Amino acid sequence: MFKLRIPAALYACAVALAQTPTIDQSLSSKQPTSVDISPDGRYVAYTVQYTNWEENSFDDQIWVAIPATGVKYQLTSGKKSSQGPRWSPDSKRLAFKSDRDGKFQIYVIAPAGGEATQLTTEENGVGAFDWSPDGAAIAFTSTGAEAKSKKDRKEKYGDFEIVTGDYTMSHLWLLKVPPDIPLDAKGRPKPEALTRGNATDTLQ
């Protein structure tokens, strides 16, 4: 009986080792993250994290699932991240933020796919965001444009930061989103600052 137990134990160890993923396999595994269900219940938007070995980073892309049919498909693509999907109240559009052009900006895309339209061009990017209840606007947080004095300083002395002296506050902004967004960026609405001052604002 004792002799039979040893091969069985060795076999169990071998199976366990064979099932243990390598470091590369673990890093390459796709991880689902944030999820947002459309108000009409037809769609589920979620992000999947990928390993970008070329850029040595983890990037996110947005997928959409249709619970009624079991169909799922990738909605965004590219080397940079697309994340934080937010459905419009009428479920006809999906807003998300992406750093595909450098800083994180807000984009809007139809749930069936197609070309995403960039809504914001914030100099320092966008933080949190969400649709207004009527779907006519999107509120977001951003530090806004960099102060001219700081730009002049960088141009003269180079890029550096003064500890406790260069802290930039985040404020609330409101951007109107028309049903038909102009293709020309110059014709799109500009964000309106809702808060100012030395306190940092957040979206809950």
Structure description:
- The chain is an alpha+beta fold.
- It has a single domain (29-193), classed as 7 Propeller (Methylamine Dehydrogenase, Chain H).
- Helices cover 17% and strands 32% of the residues.
- The protein is built from three helices and twelve strands, in the order ααββββββββββαββ.
- The chain has helices at 2-19, 23-28, 148-157; strands spanning 31-37, 44-52, 57-66, 71-74, 82-87, 94-98, 105-109, 117-118, 129-131, 137-142, 171-176, 192-193.
- Strands 1-2-3-4 form a four-stranded antiparallel beta sheet, with no helix packed on it. The protein has a four-stranded antiparallel beta sheet with strand order 5-6-7-8, with no helix packed on it. Strands 9-10-11-12 form a four-stranded antiparallel beta sheet, with no helix packed on it.
- A hairpin with a 6-residue loop joins strand 1 and strand 2.
- It is globular.
- The model is unreliable at 1-6 (pLDDT under 50).
The strands making up the biggest β-sheet line up spatially as 1-2-3-4
CATH topology: Methylamine Dehydrogenase, Chain H
Which oligomeric form is depicted?
single chain
Binned strand content: 25-35%
How many distinct folded domains? 1
State the CATH architecture: 7 Propeller
Quick one: biggest sheet?
A: 4 strands, antiparallel
> Secondary-structure element order, as H and E?
HHEEEEEEEEEEHEE
**CA gyration radius, whole angstroms:** 23 Å
- Poorly predicted regions: 1-6
- Helical amount among residues, as a percent range? 10-25%
CATH level-four homologous superfamily name: YVTN repeat-like/Quinoprotein amine dehydrogenase
- Give the terminus-to-terminus CA distance: 64 Å
Individual helix count: 3
Kindly provide the name of the CATH class.
Answer: Mainly Beta
SS class: alpha+beta
Number of strands: 12
